[in-house]
Each structure stands twice: as C-alpha cells, then as structure tokens.
Amino acid sequence: VYVTCTVSVERSAKEARDAYAGLKLGNKIGISAAEDLTEVERKDLWTWGEDSRCVLLQSKGQSVGNSFMARKGKRYFIIYIVGIYFDKRESIQNLLKDFLNKIDSYEG
After folding, report:
1. DSSP 31-86
2. For 43-90, how does the pLDDT look when each residue is reduced to its tens digit (9 = 90+)?
C-alpha cells in the first residue's frame, strides 16, 4: 500500500486557488504519463470545499486506488492511496472526516 498526502495553507484564498489549479494540472500530467493508469471521476462519492475531485485509479480496468484533492478557502490538499481503494461514499467519509475537521480548524 502506498499513501501520500500534501496539505497546504496559503496566505489567501486566491493564492490557494492558483496553487490548486497548478496541482490539478500536475496531477493530470502525472497520471497521463503513468503506463496503464487511468482516472475515473467519482463526484458522487465525495466533495469538500469550493473545489474538489474524487477519482478511482484504475489499471487495466481494475480499481487500484484513489486520489482525493480539494480546496477550501486558503487551504488545499491531495491524497493518493494505491494498493487499496474506496468506492463507497460512507467509507470515504469515515476515512477523511477527522482529517478534514483538523484542516478546517487550523488557523496557520
């Protein structure tokens, strides 16, 4: 199982929007460069903040992981999980709930 997570708090919502846009573009480039890896957008499973993406990562038609990325105000994050995957709304909510509450409460 591979997990990576990046969280950032910018000085303003505009800076976070700009950084999030770059992160989203970089994510698309990285996924497109990976051999036999595709994204299946699943907005029905999870959303958070003003901008968010929830995708199932698939290889050769089989789900192999997830990518969650979102921006809320001046905060943004991305999480990759590969080796296991979540395809049920309740499981994703349980996985991310405490993490998102901590991001919301951070004033940095």
Report:
1. HHHSTTEEEEE-TTT---SSEEEEEEEEETTEEEEEEEEEEETTEEEEEEEESS--
2. 999 999 999 999 999 999 999 999 999 999 999 999 999 999 999 999
